[in-house]
Amino acid sequence: MSVSTRRRHPRRRGSSGGGRRTQEERRSQTQARLLEATMDCLVHLGWSGTSTTEVARRAGVSRGAQQHHYPTKMVLVAASLEHLLEAQRLAYESAFAVLPAGRRNVEGALDLLWEVFRGPPAKALMELAVAARTDEELRPLCRDLNERILQVITETFERMFPENELAPDFVPTLLRGLFAMFVGLSVQNALDDDASSHQEAVLRQVKDFARLIVPQPGTATAASPPPTTDTGSTPPGDAAPTSVTSTACTRGAAATAPPSSAATSEPASESASPLGKAPVAEFRAPDAPAATHT
Question: Model-level pTM?
Fold first, then answer.
């Protein structure tokens, strides 16, 4: 009661529209307290320990007020999860925006995402998913929640990296895989707090891969691979090395043979394709012996 009283007086002084505006603000504030108290219960008590009575007690509101806004536990939890997602999104994007310029890239974004997955709210969501395995009422909520989280991750990625040139049908699958991997890593982290640095090693490799396919914010494309040409089309008599690898393999021929016109013009026309524009199949099969993108 004392909390709501303290907050009521400033609103009345600053409100010029009468009681209607103040009532709406009070309603929103009551809902926010209920939603935050629900998440607090889920984090500390789990799904089975969370009850509408305990939520009302922690929120400092009456049971009648709680039932007026959220009649059942399921409705209350669903609203709390949506409230959490929006709060986490805003906090995540704000944290990314204030990173130093050198870290405001895909690596910094992944570091921040890992912090989110290691936090108490994320662990509470995992407990919900486990409980939903045997709870038919909770299962649809968790199934929809997974898709909602992926939607938020995808929308956030597109806002933060609008210049990425990945194929549209590749991004959702890529982010779904990233989400699944981070869920698994966070389960391990909850058990051992990465005492052996295994999760850190996985994250480091993920960032190395991400750096290849997602451009730095503010740049049009990712870094271009070294230029190469198809040496199979060069006549046997024209030994013209076009890459470091082929030069090393044909040192003797390169020392005497003059460069052909095809070799000198090729880098300007073919090698300008950035890694971000490469076909999706190339990322799925990095070992394929494609001569033009190695």
Answer: 0.65
